[in-house]
Amino acid sequence: MTQEKVYKIALIPGDGIGPDIVTAACEVLDKAAGRFGFRLEYEELLAGGAALDASGEPLPQYTVEAAKGADAVMLGAVGGPKWDTLPTALRPEKALLGLRSSLGLFANLRPARMFPALVAQSPLRPEITAQGMDIMIVRELTGGIYFGEQGRSGRGEERKAYDTEAYSYPEIVRIARIAFGLAQGRNKQLTLVDKANILTTSQLWREVVKEIAPEYPDVQLDYLYVDNAAMQLVKRPYSFDVILTSNMFGDILSDEAAQITGSIGLLPSASLGLPGKPGMYEPIHGSAPDIAGQNKANPLATILSAAMLLRLSLGEEDAAAAIEDAVTKVLADGYRSPDLLAPGETAQEGMLLGTLEMTSAVLAAL
Ligand code: IPM
Ligand code: MG
Fold it and tell me: Could you please report the per-residue DSSP string of 66-84?
């Protein structure tokens, strides 16, 4: 008899709607596992505001150790008004940065894809959205200004603060190789977004990316300054394939790309480190504390993140594709969560679903 495959998943529900959507994703994962012949074992861990309340720190050491020992990490969301007045070092967001850096998750993959059923949701004009959009943003996640030296001094009118951005060759080359590799498996087009007309870090990014480009002759490489990139994204979103960029530029552009798809409630993400190490998967939206625990949150971004987990960390491609197909079908069938309605749009009778009902719809389609 062949042994059933068992994977260990570290679950970090976090705050706000985090527990609602992570529970939903686990149900879908379990159903996919049953169908494709493997099993998932979960360990629930604390991080963010939930951890602050329980232990006084946003990222307990135990959470880091247990996450490192898992095959993959699934995260809901962290943060909320309750903890907003805490000093920076104690804010729930610190847990996120701490997890990224302690797990070495330098590559953040943020696919922004327009769902045909939802084009009316996009703030862009129909003649632009009609051309579709399928962008993979590859954001550097453990370096740059998020992790550079910072400081503050003085009082009153003498107050000063600074943040610094530093990047080294190894940090750039490893993320660039991931972006080139992804482009090879997609439309073979890579855009490096930077501010090389001003920043020396950006100049180094261009230099390094140019140096390794000949190793990927099938990929067409171009460059955009970040201000122009922000503009081109709304002007011609359909013409991008893979976007490679630094930590802060990726943070900004991924929100812009998400809004173009019209539905931040649908966008998943993967954060990856070295091969063989656990990746972390989370929706790109936040913790939406105002609707927490009310069966209102859209679970689809987390469910799609679970699909990325199956594909990228567990190699369960068939199960991942089945989940993605199920989500596409549920949307094509007209089911909507409140966040997926265009302004002024009302769902068809019986089609407006809460978290639990949307999850059931995906389970049924699976
Ligand atoms: C994101 C978020 C985080 C970031 C915050 C919550 C620290 O905006 O994942 O995009 O800036 O990286
Ligand atoms: Mg962000």
Answer: HHHTSSEEEEEE---GGGT
Amino acid, single-letter form, for residue 15: D
Asked whether residue 2 carries a pLDDT value surpassing 80, the answer given is: no
Nearest atom (ligand 1) to Cα of 282: 9
Which residues, at least 6 apart from 52, have a Cβ–Cβ distance to it below 8 Å? Answer: 58, 83, 86, 90, 92
Q: Where are the domains of the chain?
A: 1-106+278-366, 123-261
Mutational test site, ligand 1, from 146, 251, 252, max ligand atoms within 8 Å of CB: 251
* 195 given a catalytic annotation: yes
| Average pLDDT estimate for 42-69 | 97
On whether the 123-261 domain is CATH 3.40.718.10, my answer is yes
Average pLDDT over residues 211-217: 98
- Which one from 223, 251, 335, 339 is the annotated catalytic residue? 251
| Mean residue pLDDT across the chain | 96
Decide: 165 and 199 in contact? Cβ < 8 Å. yes
Atom of ligand 1 nearest to the CA of 108: 9
pLDDT band at residue 350 using 50, 70 and 90 as cut-offs: confident
Active site residue 7: no
The reported pLDDT for the residue numbered 344 is 82
* 284 Cα to the center of ligand 2, angstroms: 7
Is 227 annotated in the active site?
yes
- Helix, strand and coil percent figures for the chain, each rounded to 5: 50, 20, 30
Confidence of residue 225 (pLDDT cuts 50, 70, 90): very high
Mean pLDDT computed over 279-292: 95
Respond yes or no: is residue 251 known to be catalytic. Answer: yes
C-alpha span between 251 and 249 (Å, rounded): 5
pLDDT at 91: 92
SS3 220: strand
* CATH entry, 1-106+278-366, from 3.40.50.1240, 3.30.460.10, 1.10.10.10, 3.40.718.10: 3.40.718.10
Pocket of ligand 1 (CB under 6 A): 93, 96, 251
Of 13-17, 152-156, 262-266, where does mean pLDDT reach its minimum?
262-266
State the ligand closest to the CA atom of 88: 1
pLDDT band at 1 (very low <50, low <70, confident <90, very high): low
